[in-house]
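Mods, move this if it's the wrong board.
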Amino acid sequence: AVAKRNREPDPEFNRQLADLWAEFWTAPEVTGELPGPEMERLVCRTWLRDGEIFGQHVTKAIAPFGSRIPYALELLEADFVPFDLTDPAKSLVHGVQKDGWGRPVGYYVYRVHPGSMTTALGSRFDTVWLPADRAFHLKFVRRLHQTRGVSIFHAVLSRLDDLKDYEE
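Not the wrong board. Structure tokens:
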């Protein structure tokens, strides 16, 4: 809660904030298809299944905002960041460029999903640079300095693959 200078809660301002939050939360992402609670569930499912999810903080005036708040989230599956894009000379690891401390500086992101069949083949693998201050990368890591996330199902999948080999 926001307080006045005398440290007492400011009920009018807090009510305005709550109203704006409720309006924003009805459509917080750029497609306008997901209300806030469903978006949270989808982000969680994607993070657990894929081990990571990327997103962009969108504030440009041309973006489709679902409320009066000039802010939206663009959610990106891990497939949007090319895992095979690595260049040690640029400190680029799996599509993520890092600084000397290992902090992400930015991400190379495909313009369209690489599995999309709606674009010309030549443009399907074009990337754009997404600065880290406009992005987020929620990832499940198993060790220090890990660049990309790992699915929580990785141990189960390995075991299932072993069972498949045994059955064959």
